Amino acid sequence: MSSQRGMIIVLEGLDRVGKTTQAQKLVQSLRNQGKNTELIRFPDRSTMTGNLINQYLSGQTKLNDHVIHLLFTANRWEKFDQMIEMIKAGTTLVIDRYSYSGVAYTSAKGLDFDWCCSPEKGLIKPDCVLFLTTDINESCKREDFGQEIYDRKEFQKSVHQAYEKLIDKTYWNIIDTTNKTIDDVHDEILKAIHVRSTNISKNISYLW
Ligand code: T5A
């Protein structure tokens, strides 16, 4: 066991805003700094729940809105024990989407906000959420937008409004990526992480 627990960093934002690009670059930079770092993506489409989620997102299977919400949450609970182990061993986790996506996307469909939060209760609370924003007109034009069921501009606007209810400046950084290069955004993220990393509590906290 490491004497210092790993940091937990989450990237959030609308579809195609650049989360995966930035998560991968962040993992690489942290590893270059000598930090043991792992990338986790939600949904994890490789598990049993992930397979159902993938069928739903690609339009092959229809599911009740409550059911798909609980599947996304279960997909996170499946990783819970492994994540705790890694953090305690001193591994930094960079997580591409998390509970905030769950709540923002489902509540944007009109489901009760508190109901959406409740199955997330008890999951690990991140030390830092990087909320990537951009001009929706730009992200909707990016490659592959429109391939999955949530890739509709009007729905994305509702999701953004739902995210705004979740912003907690005590551990969220809003990173406006509009007209910025991938490298500029990466630099901004590194600066934000550096500031947050000086203030990590010894113990793991839990949502919500
Ligand atoms: N969902 C997810 C829920 O409803 N509930 C949940 O609990 C969870 C976890 C799938 C869907 O599931 C929903 C949300 C989603 O609708 P996903 O697989 O993470 O989730 O889907 P996306 O968010 O669409 O993930 P993507 O990987 O497709 O998009 P990213 O990661 O935001 O974007 P990225 O990095 O792949 O970049 C997209 C393109 O933009 C370019 C990249 O090169 C790439 O071509 N790009 C830039 N171009 C110009 N300037 C920049 N600064 C750029 N940054 C990236």
UniProtKB/TrEMBL annotation:
<keyword id="KW-0547">Nucleotide-binding</keyword>
<keyword id="KW-0067">ATP-binding</keyword>
<keyword id="KW-0418">Kinase</keyword>
<dbReference type="GO" id="GO:0005524">
    <property type="term" value="F:ATP binding"/>
</dbReference>
<dbReference type="InterPro" id="IPR039430">
    <property type="entry name" value="Thymidylate_kin-like_dom"/>
</dbReference>
<dbReference type="InterPro" id="IPR027417">
    <property type="entry name" value="P-loop_NTPase"/>
</dbReference>
<dbReference type="GO" id="GO:0005829">
    <property type="term" value="C:cytosol"/>
</dbReference>
<dbReference type="InterPro" id="IPR018094">
    <property type="entry name" value="Thymidylate_kinase"/>
</dbReference>
<dbReference type="InterPro" id="IPR018095">
    <property type="entry name" value="Thymidylate_kin_CS"/>
</dbReference>
<protein>
    <recommendedName>
        <fullName>Thymidylate kinase</fullName>
        <ecNumber>2.7.4.9</ecNumber>
    </recommendedName>
</protein>
<keyword id="KW-0545">Nucleotide biosynthesis</keyword>
<feature type="domain" description="Thymidylate kinase-like">
    <location>
        <begin position="11"/>
        <end position="189"/>
    </location>
</feature>
<dbReference type="GO" id="GO:0006233">
    <property type="term" value="P:dTDP biosynthetic process"/>
</dbReference>
<keyword id="KW-0808">Transferase</keyword>
<dbReference type="Pfam" id="PF02223">
    <property type="entry name" value="Thymidylate_kin"/>
</dbReference>
<comment type="similarity">
    <text>Belongs to the thymidylate kinase family.</text>
</comment>
<dbReference type="GO" id="GO:0004798">
    <property type="term" value="F:dTMP kinase activity"/>
</dbReference>
<dbReference type="GO" id="GO:0005739">
    <property type="term" value="C:mitochondrion"/>
</dbReference>
<comment type="pathway">
    <text>Pyrimidine metabolism; dTTP biosynthesis.</text>
</comment>
<dbReference type="GO" id="GO:0005634">
    <property type="term" value="C:nucleus"/>
</dbReference>
<dbReference type="GO" id="GO:0006235">
    <property type="term" value="P:dTTP biosynthetic process"/>
</dbReference>
<dbReference type="GO" id="GO:0006227">
    <property type="term" value="P:dUDP biosynthetic process"/>
</dbReference>
<dbReference type="GO" id="GO:0004550">
    <property type="term" value="F:nucleoside diphosphate kinase activity"/>
</dbReference>
